[in-house]
Amino acid sequence: MTTGGIVFFRTTNREATTAFYTDTVGAEVWLEQSGCTILRHGNMLFGLCDGEETEAEGIVTFVYDTDDEVDRMHERVGDAAREDPHENDQYDIYQFFATDPDGRTVEFQTFRHDVSDPL
């Protein structure tokens, strides 16, 4: 039986990107390994590992309980934000997108409807 998982990304800028996620977003270092930092934010684990090129495909999404929390994150990420927080009727969410120091897309959102806890 699986107890969880980790998504890993290669990075050419591990120090600055780790600092963005810990200092700005509020993730914590879960495990530091040679050439790889694994971060934790709530029930999400993701790793940033040294590489010759940055893997920036996909979106790292942080889910919050309220609009106010999303708005606070918008203030915290500052110039990294690509847009203002807004309603997304297609997915019934309140969200905005930002860019991390590696150029990876980061989303901050809250669901507008009750979502069952996946754990």
Task: List strands and helices in order, with pairings.
Elements: E1 7-11, H1 14-25, E2 28-33, E3 36-41, E4 44-50, E5 59-63, H2 67-77, E6 86-88, E7 93-99, E8 105-111
Parallel strand pairs: 1-4, 5-8
Antiparallel strand pairs: 2-3, 3-4, 6-7, 7-8
Outline the structure in words.
This protein is an alpha/beta fold and 119 residues long. The protein has one domain: 2,3-Dihydroxybiphenyl 1,2-Dioxygenase, domain 1. 19% of the residues lie in helices and 39% in strands. The chain contains 2 helices and 8 strands, in the order E-H-E-E-E-E-H-E-E-E. The protein has a 4-stranded mixed sheet with strand order 1-4-3-2, covered by helices on one side. Strand 3 (36-41) and strand 4 form a beta hairpin. The longest helix has 12 residues, at 14-25. The protein is globular. The two termini are 13 Å apart. It comes from Halogeometricum rufum.
Identify the notable features of this structure and list them briefly.
2,3-Dihydroxybiphenyl 1,2-Dioxygenase, domain 1, 4-stranded mixed β-sheet, 8 strands
Give a quick precis of the structure:
With 119 residues, the chain is α/β, with parallel strands linked by helices.
